[in-house]
Design goal:
heterodimer, A: about 425 residues, alpha/beta, Rossmann fold, Herpes Virus-1, globular, B: about 800 residues, 4 domains, DNA-binding (chain B), metal ion binding (chain B), iron (chain B)
């Protein structure tokens, strides 16, 4: 912005002045790039309050992006997906994580994203287990073993955030692979790398390790913070994972979060089989009971052992313990809500004919911006954008469709 | 796919293109070629590497040949053997496609590669020889006509004896052993032909092994029947080789010089000779041995010497009489064929002993000249005068030296040519200096500039005019194309090479994304200008800032980085300074460092390890030199080169006397300003260096020009169009920290997923071409009358 002012003021007749001005302008040439992006044009002043706000066009643009993402997620439904995921998150805490291209530095952004991911992972896959490996000083350090408790992982990660030394792909891969070797055959094995480093410093040939990982049917995905590393891309290609490079901190978050829903299963990655599970009941321990071991609230239905939290494995008889909402939540990945159709494009004529007062059939608020409203294909109800997002990302059910099926089944029953 | 190219001039050409899609610039290239082919003229086209130049040229030429059978062979000249193999592989794809489309019968074509004996020989006894010269020598020893004749005589005589006894006697008995492959090939005679197809060197060797025919001579024999010939520049440009191989080619041929950005230097080298003390001493020894041979011949076989004398009296033009169908391949005249005088050899060198005496005198004279303690520079005319006055040898005698030597060696039935290398070099020198009075300079330097205390005299006969060597090619062949990724400024090449192109065009690369990011770093983070200008290049600040650039890049760029310096000495200097100041250690934290040296073996080992480091993700930096071997021939594509840094402007060594002589000549003859030529030459080298990282459209790479001089228009404007079109204002005049910011963003955006759909606008598939044709959108490629036809008639899948 200042640049424009400088050029505008260059009306002096003194040629030296003009030259200096020009030199000054070319010095700031790189600013022009940002000028061409015109980020300020997305802002507008609210006529009533005088505050700056992001204008409608930008909002719409972002909304569309988000919707497209939802649609592609819905499309991916129907494929076989692993319900029981055993995943390792490898967090790169090498020297490169201290760089400051993200504010305040990569380390804190990555730490934040990783913690958020761990929570979201258990939110979406309550039956799965996760462990954290950190890579620093050239070695792989198994921070937490595979387990089902998000808070334990997050706490461990918070305490470990300190970066130094080199990153070793081979060592981390080896640590993850050897640990994943022992998991039952129905579980899907995954590794997610969050990689800041642009190089890997390995003790041996990383390619033999990659081949071994491939043979062990471990799916490795990589989210790189800075740039594409050839060997990492090949690793994810070989093992059937995905590879992403972040553009900025928000994008990094998106990329990492994309790994929270279960990926489609490869043909022969897992065997389907029946798994024994227990549904423990919550029984408070009486104050004066004598207890050896953990003092949990839940009681294992098989051995009556005490467990702290769900889902987990019984510490005594190794039975998988879940609660029924967990099962239900894992289930929705198999049958996602189909993406809603855009409302405005189809019903232009309706709009013209005078029906202006459009109401969201979920939150019952009137819809001001019809271009963002959408319509369920099954029940033809119109939803506002916020509800659309809520239904797809949180609820995983169309309220009107499920209501209709409920009514129908009732009718049949009667 | 098949599509029609029409520039509105003459009949449209249906082009057979073996792939399902074509880049717009390829179509544009074909249009340019067609224009030149129609006009029977020459062309110079610049198109960035990675846009499929080779297949474009091949499919256009072959399609044109199919449509116009009167057009002769396609001669594709490459610089290296691997390039040659690549061309032939492309040709294979094209041939297969045409056969599929037209049926095997109509599309019977023969394409073959030709290289030296070393690359083609299948005789294990010969092929195992190390160097090219020794393979050549050994081959000649087995296949020269008189060797074979003698062997036949012996065989007739010794018919009774056993074969084993013969083998045991070996060479020293007068060359009794022979090459089975060559004999079989000779016996087959007319029947020894290659069936149509595409033959790489490997295929030729295999075919030769299977048939037991010598692949080298078979290939040379088949040149006159082939449709497409792929061989080295030398076979076309160097008169010594060209007269052997390329003399039988007809006028209607289409000649293509690929990677021709250095063609002027190749031309100049083909006509330049350097003589050192060592060479002259060797030549002196050769003369002694030649004398001995003459004496021996006089005693045993005087008839032959007398015959030769008779022949020489009758004139050199009749020398053809001597040519016998053997594998001897005698020395050929280094002078352009048109410049050889068709007259009798002067009397004073007709007799063998007289000629040898003249040679001896000449060598002595040269030795005397080399004793000079100061630098001398003179024109050929002055040299001849001085020579006539001091040694009594006139120009005309010198002019015939080479042919006379050839004739003598043939007469004496000498086969081990390498023994006479030094002598033939002297004769070569004599012939050139005797023939040309213009466009050459003689420069005598008593010592190397770098080591003024060590006497190392060298007499250089430097060709100054690149057009001399290539002129006959332009005159002889109907259409000659020079093409490369860097031919800018494109109007300078025709001037340098002395030809009038029908089309001279610089094509840009259409990209789906900005996959190349050139930038100019003019100052370090401390705002001090960086440059390799002579007065500031050793400034510790500049060196420090240069180091910081590399450290920054090592942090931001994954996998491989290549850095080019202006010279070996500067690289050594700067690296040792980096070592002292700890910059090198900082770089090594991120990546391994490899260095190019003057030793080829060492360098290839370094390159190999560099590639391994890139493959396994360790990341590496290769420090190299502009104008070096690596800068010219090695690709750093994909992860082998994500960024390239050009430190400084790679000017030639401007104090070199040869260069100064050439500059003066260029100014006087072609009115090219010294500074213009120097800048052009430096910038084309720089472009060549940075172009190493982009080898295809899917690739991406950062190109850093680290010198403040690149910011000026006269340097920047000389870069090829496909680089300048990406040199936006925001990437000019950057300081190191800003540049790293740009690099970071670039690396991130290039790593984003890249779908095939995105590439639609830079890729025409059949459907697209059809649609464009139907809409008339591609007006240029498809003119009005073609568009009137239904699209399905014009294009068939």
């Amino acid at each position: 912005m200042t640049l424009i002012g400088a050029e505008g003021g260059g009306s002096e007749s003194d040629s030296d002045e003009i030259d200096a001005e020009r030199a000054q302008a070319s010095l700031r040439a790189w600013e022009k790039k940002y000028q061409s992006e015109r980020a300020w044009e997305d802002l507008e002043e609210d006529p009533l309050t005088g505050r700056l706000r992001v204008n409608a066009r930008a909002v719409e643009l972002r909304a569309r992006e988000r919707r497209a993402k939802m649609a592609s997620a819905a499309l991916r439904g129907g494929a076989a997906k692993g319900m029981m995921r055993f995943a390792y998150v490898v967090v790169d805490l090498s020297r490169a994580a201290n760089e400051e291209d993200f504010r305040p530095n990569r380390l804190s952004v990555v730490g934040h994203c990783a913690a958020a991911f761990v929570r979201e992972f258990f939110n979406q896959n309550p039956l799965s287990q996760l462990g954290i490996i950190v890579a620093r000083n050239g070695v792989a350090e198994r921070l937490t073993e595979l387990s089902g408790s998000p808070e334990a992982h997050c706490a461990a990660l918070r305490n470990a955030l300190d970066a130094s030394g080199d990153f070793s792909l081979q060592n981390t891969l080896n640590a993850a692979r050897t640990s994943l070797k022992s998991i039952p055959s129905y579980g899907s094995r995954e590794v997610l790398y969050i990689m800041s480093s642009l190089a890997t410093c390995d003790p041996g040939n990383v390619w033999t390790e990659i081949q071994a990982t491939k043979a062990a049917k471990v799916r490795v995905s990589v989210v790189a913070v800075a740039a594409e590393l050839h060997v990492a891309r090949r690793l994810s290609e070989e093992t059937g994972g995905t590879y992403g490079v972040s553009m900025n901190a928000d994008h990094l978050d998106d990329l990492i979060m994309a790994h929270a829903p279960p990926p489609p299963l490869a043909e022969d990655a897992t065997k389907s089989c029946l798994v024994q599970m227990g549904f423990p009941q919550k029984k408070h321990v009486s104050k004066d009971a004598l207890i050896v071991g953990t003092r949990g609230d839940y009681v294992c239905p098989r051995c009556s052992g005490r467990i702290d939290e769900l889902p987990s494995q019984c510490t005594v008889c190794r039975l998988t313990l879940v609660s029924s909402p967990h099962l239900a939540r894992s289930y929705h990945h198999l049958f996602p809500v189909p993406a809603f159709k855009e409302y405005a494009s189809r019903n232009v004529s309706a709009k013209e004919s005078g029906i202006v007062a459009l109401e969201c059939s979920a939150c019952l608020a009137s819809i001001t911006d019809a271009s963002l409203a959408s319509e369920c294909e099954h029940c033809s109800n119109v939803f506002c954008f916020a509800c659309d997002i809520f239904i797809h990302e949180r609820l995983h059910n169309c309220p009107h469709c499920s209501c209709a099926t409920h009514v129908e089944s009732r009718k049949k029953a009667s | 796919m098949r599509f029609t190219i029409d520039d509105g001039g003459s009949a449209p050409i249906e082009v057979f293109f073996p792939y399902d899609s074509v880049y717009p610039e390829q179509v544009a290239y074909m249009r340019e070629m067609k224009r030149a082919l129609d006009a029977r003229g020459h062309g110079a086209v610049e198109m960035p590497t990675g846009t499929g130049k080779t297949i474009t040229v091949l499919s256009m030429c072959v399609s044109y040949q199919l449509a116009h059978p009167e057009v002769g062979k396609i001669i594709y000249c490459t610089r290296t053997v691997p390039e040659m193999e690549k061309v032939l592989e492309e040709m294979k794809a094209l041939q297969a496609y045409i056969e599929k489309e037209l049926g095997a019968e109509t599309a019977r074509m023969l394409s073959l590669g030709l290289s030296s004996r070393k690359n083609m020989c299948v005789n294990p006894a010969v092929a195992d020889e190390g160097s090219r010269e020794s393979v050549d020598g050994r081959c000649r020893r087995l296949t020269a006509s008189w060797v074979r004749e003698r062997r036949l005589e012996r065989q007739a005589r010794d018919a009774g004896r056993t074969v084993a006894a013969e083998d045991g006697e070996g060479d020293n008995e007068g060359g009794v052993s022979c090459c089975d492959w060559f004999e079989e090939f000779e016996t087959a005679g007319e029947k020894a032909v290659l069936p149509p197809g595409v033959y790489t060197l490997h295929d030729l060797r295999q075919f030769g092994r299977a048939k037991k025919w010598c692949p080298y001579f078979l290939a040379r024999n088949m040149i006159s029947f082939a449709n497409v010939i792929v061989y080295n520049y030398q076979y076309m440009l160097d008169p010594k080789v060209a007269s052997l191989v390329s003399s039988a080619l007809e006028k209607e041929c289409v000649v293509v010089f690929d990677e021709a950005h250095n063609i002027d230097n190749v031309c100049i080298e083909a006509l330049s000779v350097n003589l050192r003390q060592q060479t002259l001493e060797n030549a002196g020894r050769s003369i002694t041995s030649l004398n001995a041979r003459i004496d021996k011949a006089k005693q045993t076989d005087e008839r032959r010497l007398r015959q030769e004398y008779e022949r020489l009296v009758n004139g050199l033009a009749q020398q053809g009489v001597l040519a016998r169908g053997g594998g001897e391949d005698m020395l050929m005249n280094p002078v352009i064929p048109d410049d050889i005088l068709r007259e009798a050899v002067p009397g004073n060198i007709r007799r063998a002993e007289h000629f040898v005496a003249v040679l001896k005198r000449f060598v002595e004279y040269l030795k005397f000249r080399l004793q000079s303690t100061q630098v001398e520079q003179e024109t050929p005319t002055a040299f001849l005068q001085h020579c006539a006055a001091n040694a009594g040898i006139d120009g005309k005698t010198l002019k015939f030296c080479y042919d006379r030597l050839t004739s003598l060696l043939k007469t004496l039935e000498v086969v081990d040519m390498d023994e006479y290398n030094a002598l033939s070099l002297v004769a070569n020198f004599a012939a050139l200096v005797g023939t040309y009075s213009k466009g050459f300079a003689l420069i005598l330097e008593p010592y190397d500039e770098r080591y003024p205390n060590i006497p190392d005299p060298v007499l250089q006969l430097a060709c100054l005019d690149a057009s001399l060597a290539i002129k006959p090619v332009f005159e002889r062949f109907q259409s000659v194309f020079i093409t490369s990724g860097t031919l800018s400024p494109i109007d300078l090449y025709p001037k340098l090479l002395g030809f009038n192109p029908v089309c001279a065009k610089s094509l840009e690369m259409t990209l789906t994304r900005e996959c190349l990011c050139p930038m100019v770093i003019t100052r370090g983070a401390d705002q001090q200008a960086v440059s390799t200008k002579f007065d500031v290049r050793d400034d510790p600040n500049v060196i420090q800032n240069y180091g910081r650039i590399l450290v920054g890049l090592a942090q931001t760029v994954p996998d491989g980085i290549v850095a080019f310096f202006v010279s070996y000495s500067y690289m050594e200097n700067i690296v040792s300074k980096w070592h002292e100041t700890g910059i090198l250690r900082e770089i090594m934290q991120h990546k391994l460092v490899f260095i190019e040296t003057t030793d080829v073996v060492e360098t290839s080992l370094a390159l190999d390890n560099y590639r391994r480091a890139c493959n396994c993700g360790r990341g590496a930096i290769f420090l190299s030199v502009a104008r070096g071997k690596v800068a010219e021939g090695i690709d750093f594509d994909r992860h082998y080169g994500r960024a390239v840094v050009m430190y400084g402007v790679p000017y030639q060594y401007t104090l070199s006397r040869i260069l100064r002589a050439r500059l003066e000549y260029l100014r006087e003859t072609f009115q090219i300003k010294e500074s213009d030529f120097l800048a052009f030459d430096a910038v084309r080298q720089a472009a060549q260096c940075v172009g190493r990282v982009i080898r295809s459209k899917k690739d991406y790479g950062l190109m850093v020009f680290a010198d403040k001089r690149y910011n000026s228009q006269d340097k920047r404007g000389k870069l090829p169009g496909w680089i300048t079109s990406h040199l936006h204002e925001e990437v000019l005049n950057l300081s190191t920290d800003m540049a790293m910011q740009v690099a970071r963003t670039f690396m991130r955006s290039m790593s984003q997923p890249f779908s095939h759909d995105d590439s639609k606008k830079s890729l025409f598939d059949q459907e697209m071409l059809n649609r464009l044709a139907a809409e008339g959108g591609y007006r240029e490629a498809l003119p009005a009358q073609a568009r009137k036809l239904a699209p399905e008639i014009m294009m068939h899948i």
